[in-house]
Amino acid sequence: MGRGMDRHLHTDRLHLRPPRVMDAPHVFAGWAGQPESLRHLGWSAHQDEAQTKAQLRSEEHTSELQSRVDISYAVFCLK
Q: What is the 3-class SS of the chain, one letter each residue?
């Protein structure tokens, strides 16, 4: 986590936070495994959920090691 930064945003209807490894099934099904969703991002769709888990694990590790300005978020609708 970035120094002095709260990387979570809560409202009554929304929760934004960095994605976690446990989110892999939703991330893979929602967009990481969908070529059409990624066509403008410059990287290929993941072939399986294991690849998504590995990517998320790498991002969790990286964000623990350094303060980052380019923070990724996962969106969770609460209502």
A: CCCCCCCCEECCCEEEECCCHHHHHHHHHHHHCCHHHHCCCCCCCCCCHHHHHHHHHHHHHHHHHCCCCCCCCEEEECC
